[in-house]
Amino acid sequence: MNYLIEELVKDNLITKSNVRDFILKNPKRQVRIGALLSQNYIEKSQFYQYILQKLRVGDLSFDSIDALSKEDVNSVELYEFIAQNLNIEYIDLQNIEIDSSLLDKIPTSILLKNRIVITEEDDIYIHVVFADPFDMAAQDAVSRFFPNKIIKKALSSFESINEKLMQIETYESLKIYIQDIKEDLKSTSHNDEDESPAVLKLIELILKSSILARASDIHIEVSEK
User: Fold this and answer.
1) The pTM is what?
2) Residue 5: phi, psi to the nearest 5?
């Protein structure tokens, strides 16, 4: 048995005889939590509540939810259950466009350190997606940069937040390199055959980002500006 199933046995969510019964009935299947859930050896809502309680007391971290997908557990459904019980929204960040003006109001290093993504700001609220909504240090960090706003929390998967933070980090690097290129163009003669160091950094960044994003093609469009 894996560690989490052993914990479920210890905490009486399932018995060893249940596990043995599953193995006898499914000799060719691995003993995974998802299979135990689908065959009603573990009651789903009870298991979800168990995970939520483990998160509350710090026995589990939120990145372990993503790992549960390897146990054939529907991690999105589990995230939605947790968000509903915490009275916050679950957000899929994949299709969310980040307002670049928000990135000027809080350092990217703060976002990376606290695993947070700021998605929206209005007159009353600052909307923040947390990898860990119980992380008070992350909430305090947001409050320092938006002292007059109420934090409206949302939850997303660790993987989704990491991908969005990578995009934000890439965007910030692009801004710096583009500014460096402009400065290089001002100071370098047109006859100078040496490549601008900033251009080389920009190309390296594009290639690195494409590799991380597993892009099959890289398209670079030339702007007249």
Assistant:
1) 0.78
2) -65, -40
Q: Which segment of 93-97, 117-121, 142-146, 153-157 scores lowest on mean pLDDT?
A: 93-97
89 forms beta bridges with 154
Burial class from Cβ neighbours inside 10 Å (0-12, 13-18, 19+) for residue 206 reads middle
Distance from C-alpha of 199 to C-alpha of 221, rounded to nearest angstrom:
15
Q: Is it the case that residue 118 has pLDDT exceeding 90?
A: yes
Give the β-pairing of 116-121 and 89-90: unpaired
CA 101 remoteness from chain centre = 21
Distant-in-sequence, close-in-space partners of 50: CB < 8 Å, separation ≥ 6: 8, 11, 13
Per DSSP (E only), the strands in the chain are 89-90, 116-121, 125-130, 150-155
The answer to whether 99 and 126 have CB atoms below 8 angstroms apart is no
| The pLDDT of residue 217 | 42
Determine the Cα–Cα distance for residues 31 and 181; give it in Å rounded to an integer. Answer: 56
| 157-161: Cβ within 8 A, 24+ apart | 157/65, 157/66, 157/75, 157/76, 157/79, 158/62, 158/63, 158/65, 158/66, 158/115, 158/131, 159/66, 160/92, 160/93, 160/94, 161/93, 161/115, 161/116, 161/117, 161/129, 161/131
